[in-house]
């Protein structure tokens, strides 16, 4: 995904991705589980409309279950794929979009995760973890 999108562009992309997931999960003949929702699998067109790149998803055919940091922890323990896994990955994607920190960042080792990092700041210190571009927009 393109970095440095403003707040409204990010929200718009997040909504686009939510609609795409809803379509895959609820409006196909059988639910389609992406299994690897992450920024590099979100394509933006010239009007900054977000699209899920399903062609990049080879995880189901290879037996893999997503990308470390984005895949739900239960996938690592052998749980069955489910639409809930995509929803978990979507939540991590939203956290990354609002903090500009990747779940694979070096600081997220030894039990600390992006999810726990943000959760620990709520609600009093959320400005401390928010993407500086978003904070700057708020001030101006």
UniProtKB/TrEMBL annotation:
It comes from the Eukaryota. Residues 1-140 form the Protein kinase domain. Pfam families: Pkinase. SUPFAM superfamilies: Protein kinase-like (PK-like). Signal peptide: none annotated. One of its GO terms (molecular function) is ATP binding. GO terms for cellular component: membrane. PANTHER family: LEUCINE-RICH REPEAT RECEPTOR PROTEIN KINASE EMS1 (PTHR48055), PROTEIN KINASE DOMAIN-CONTAINING PROTEIN (PTHR48055:SF55). This is Protein kinase domain-containing protein. It comes from Gossypium arboreum (Tree cotton). The lineage of its organism: Eukaryota, Viridiplantae, Streptophyta, Embryophyta, Tracheophyta.
């Amino acid at each position: 995904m393109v970095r440095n999108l403003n707040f409204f562009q990010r929200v718009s992309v997040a909504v686009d991705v939510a609609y795409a997931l809803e379509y895959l999960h609820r409006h196909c003949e059988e639910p389609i589980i992406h299994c690897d929702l992450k920024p590099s699998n979100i394509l933006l067109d010239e009007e900054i409309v977000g699209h899920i790149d399903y062609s990049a998803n080879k995880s189901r055919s290879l037996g893999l279950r997503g990308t470390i940091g984005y895949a739900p922890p239960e996938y690592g323990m052998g749980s069955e794929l489910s639409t809930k896994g995509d929803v978990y990955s979507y939540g991590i994607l939203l956290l990354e979009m609002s903090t500009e920190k990747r779940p694979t960042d070096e600081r997220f080792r030894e039990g600390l995760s992006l999810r726990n990092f943000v959760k620990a700041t709520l609600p009093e210190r959320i400005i401390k973890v928010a993407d500086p571009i978003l904070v700057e927009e708020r001030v101006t």
